[in-house]
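Supplementary Methods, section 5.1.

A reviewer requested that the exact input to the structure prediction be made available. We therefore reproduce it here, unchanged from the version used in the analyses.
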Amino acid sequence: MADPGSTLNVPYDIVVIVVHALAKDLSGFEPTVYAALRTLCLVNREWCALARPHLYSYVWLAKLRNHILFCRTVTAAPHLGALVRDLKSYIFLRGSDGWRAGTTALGGPFAPPMTRAAAEALTNLRALAFASDAAVVTVPQPLLAAMAHCARCARLRALSLSGFSFMSFALLRDFVQGFRGVATLRVRRCDWLPNRIAPPVPAHAPVESVRSVDIHAMATTANSLLNLTGPAVTELKLWCRGMSGGPDTCSAIRRYSALRSIELTYDGAEVHWMIDALGNVSSPAVSQVVINHVLRRLTPSSGSVAREYTERLDHLLCEPRFLGLQRVVVRVYLPVLHDGEVWMKLVVDAFPQCQARGILISSVHEGDPDETRNV
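The structure derived from this sequence is encoded token-by-token as follows.
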């Protein structure tokens, strides 16, 4: 009888299938998948050779200890750093795992989450995401400098920031514009403190390489964030909170002369900034407009408000600059999926011109789209 612990009882081809099946779930940063791959690496050398590239391809660092151990690993073994394709760094700025001065880990003094040597080992890094537990805590200066080391990754193409508060807009601007090669930029729930002294560093030019932008911010700050990028943006996703400050709220969109797709999300009655945003579109190449209307509370007037804004949008989207539109997607998000057919009819009836052109696609959903768009 064969030894139950022997790996010879499992055909190699089956092991390959299992490893590749596990790897498909890695992009969701599922802890159980990582645990399974780590276990496979400990079986024998053959299984380790199969599982290790997948184990390091998507890296999710959730605690200070994880960051320090990861930096030590890739610095001591650069061949492992070369396997990393997607890195998500979740940074706790509050609580027992905080990054503030005085924090200790592994029995030593405070250490930055990313050292220069560790960043240089990530030679094949494609996507980088930094997220914090709240957007109300100012980013410590040593942490900001450590994060900037990742700009040295030559193959980095996607940068995401979520939940950070900067001492000034200049700090945020210079940090983002330090990543000169990224094609995708995502800035969500990041703000800055006004009335602060600007840092003694020169301002960089806009990041000309960016093609896709995803911004979730207050309507009054969206324009500043849009100006971080050059005019070559082809895809824009914008979610603004708060009332519009007028037609110039999103005036930076006018620079996007190559824009092909624009997705706008807004809450309740915050419709004015969205009208302003579409009014600033100048690209003749726009082929798709996506509108996400989020209703967090249903009131007796919700339907009339929706009809009022959709009628205005219908006329706007039939102006000469939008004649190249191939799809107008309207999604309504309700707290509870109630009277979905009624809402569908409201949307269709309020877009008669888009409906007549055969470009209207409407749907009703339950929940909040923000729950699926976190970093």
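The chain has three domains: 8-57, 62-210, 258-375. These observations are discussed further in the main text.
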